[in-house]
Amino acid sequence: SSLSSLAIPQLGQVFVTLRTAGKLSMLSARTPITRCLPTAVRRLHSAQRSSLVAKGSQQTDEMAATTVKPTLPPEYTTPKIWTSKADPEARTGNQPTAGSRFDKDMPVGEHELQLYSLGTPNGQKVTILLEELIDAGKLKDYDAWRIQFGNGEQFSSGFVNVNPNSKIPALADHSESPPLHVWESNNILLYLAEKYEAFWPSDRKEVIEARNWLFWQAGGAPFMGGGFGHFYKYAPIHIEYAIDRYSMETKRQLDVLNKHLADKTYVAGEQLTISDIAIFTWVRCLTEFYHAEEFLQLAEYKHVKRWSDALAQRPAFKRGLRVNGFGEDSLWERHSAEDFDKPDAHLEPKKDT
To answer: Could you give the CA distance from residue 184 to residue 164 in angstroms, rounded to a whole number?
Structure first.
């Protein structure tokens, strides 16, 4: 007989009830419903079917009632439709909408490459590579402008023109006309590596391996940063479930990297690539930004530590970590190599009146 009047959840409850009663042995998690349905229908009497459906519906309602999740804060209930509590007129802070919030042009220096960034792990990736390109004789110089989140500069019309996603880093290459806009940190790394033919393999197999690890980092960063970093370091309250979930994944990623580096100097072999740079800044972030070395027992990952310590000693890495960074050793902006020797380079430059 036809079961067209039964909803899918009701059918599922019928099957579960049958199996519990010992009437249906073939149903398993791997058995498609289309295979079970004919047998189930033949085994059901018309009167029993109505009774089971009614009972299944009642059991489903009871299960829903007993699986209500606790909330934080306790008075919170999940709405049917989410709405933002953010001020739609705010100049700073996240919004559920994109686009510019105020008019402001981005500054342009004298060099072909104009970087708009901040010394976060994603921003550090690009400045490290730019400094490595200078040391390799591939790049003469570049301008690095600081984007101040506190002022909402990533939502200005000028920045949004370079990166519609309003995230740092963003790069404008003025060797092209009109300037070529490049955004997403790993995409910028790949663009620069290909443009200057440096820090990227030429062998096809090595290219694939380098890409594996470049995209591995991009895929894992949200768990390490927005996940672990946020809930462990920056969230207003500590939530055990969230911290456990993202600590587990962060340590798993570290173990993947540690095992891979056991017999390698760099992640893609014996050559430094942009994949090393991309991964390095986020591994470093666990100690320098999140201060989680003891919590995550980072010393256990001996091969990661050996690799990370070696990269940190490279002059270009040291300089790149200072650009648009924080603290007295940082550079607020960078426009020439001489900026590294200025005693007040960490201070915001005075604007002309």
So the answer is: 11
Instruction: Determine the 3-state secondary structure of 170 from DSSP.
Output: strand
Strands (E), the chain: 113-117, 143-146, 170-173, 180-183
The pTM of the full predicted model, rounded to 2 decimals, is 0.82
Contact 140, 82 (CB under 8 A): no
List the one residue out of 333, 1, 309 whose CA is nearest residue 148: 333
Q: How many CB atoms lie within 10 A of CB 350?
A: 6
Phi, psi of 23 (to 5 degrees): -90, -10
CA atoms in the 13 A half-sphere facing the CB of 287: 12
- The single-letter code of the amino acid at 310 is A
What would the pLDDT profile of 147-160 be if each residue is shown by its tens digit?
Answer: 999 999 999 999 99
Q: Which of 9-13, 84-88, 244-248 has the lowest mean pLDDT?
A: 9-13
**pLDDT, tens digit, 9 for 90 and up, residues 234-266:** 999 999 999 999 999 999 999 999 999 999 999
**Residues in the chain, total:** 353
What is the pLDDT, as a whole number, of residue 124? Answer: 98
> DSSP secondary-structure letter at 146?
E
- Which run of H or E residues covers position 198? none
- Coil/strand/helix, residue 289: coil
DSSP reduced 3-state for 294 = coil
Let me know: does 333 contact 324? Beta carbons within 8 Å. Answer: yes
Whole-angstrom Cα distance, residue 132 to residue 198? 9
Sign of dihedral through CA atoms 265, 268, 274, 279? negative
Give how far Cα 345 sits from Cα of 107, 169, 324, 325, Å: 18, 20, 10, 11
Work out the angle at residue 127's Cα, subtended by the Cα atoms of residues 266 and 218, and round it to the nearest 5 degrees: 55
Considering the chain, what is the average pLDDT of its residues?
88
Q: Which residue has the tokens 């972030």?
A: 285
Q: CA 312: distance to chain centroid?
A: 22
DSSP 3-state of 8: helix
Mean pLDDT lowest among 28-37, 157-166, 183-192, 265-274: 28-37
Q: How far is CA 149 from the centre of its chain?
A: 18
